[in-house]
Fold this sequence. Notes:
The chain has 253 residues and is mainly alpha-helical. The protein has helices at residues 25-37, 40-51, 58-70, 74-87, 92-104, 108-119, 127-138, 142-156, 165-180, 184-196, 202-215, 219-232, 236-250. The longest helix has 16 residues, at 165-180.
Amino acid sequence: MMIKIILCSLLLSLSIQGQSKSVDSVLYKNLSKVMKLKSEKDIVEAASKILAIDENNFKAINALAIFYYEAKKYNMAKLLLERGLKADPGNKELKNNMALVHFAQGDRRKGLVALKDAAQGGKVDGESNLNLSSIYVEHRDYEKALGPLSKIYSKIKPKLKTKSRAAVALANNYAVSLVGAKDYSAAEKVFKTAQEAGVRDTNLLYNYAVFMVQQGKNKEDAYKVISRLKFLTEDQKLLRKVELLEKTLDNKK
Length: 253
């Protein structure tokens, strides 16, 4: 049985960067509020008020792109992101989001190019690096995933104690890639480091439990991880998988 791969969701970024023109903070607050309501009319109206002041406003353009991406209107999202990148060609968050649009449209080559571009020189635990490693892991291209992850891991390792979502997901992708590459000793070290840091992420813990059961590691420790998983999640689908894993462990000598 192969290790279960659970990828971190490919999240679109919606952060505020410095704007070229002064926009009242009330307009930003209203945009954030209507984004949660998922109403196209209200989102377009809120974004338009900002764009009337600053026609290339990053947050307004990105918010509209996110809305259309989530609504599966990928051409609209793409047009908006192209507009944003024309005004700010180096914007890594826009590049990251454009990559996700390419993937959604089935253009993996353009998506990978955009993600690689966005990941270069960005935060090691940023969305672009996380998404890029997730794509490689998803396609079981472990050698390519290990390239950037092996360089990133030493930098994100201290952030595991802070429970940084991106750091935890990157560590998970690294451990899964090491298992895929059959470097079991290194994979175990990554899993153990995350556990010792108090990581409560159920995806990582489930992958660790699967690894322990498959590798015939200490049964007592494996039961402890499984017990912790049961305590941390109410997801019935995951609980069923954990119960099956526990039965597999029970049947091992």
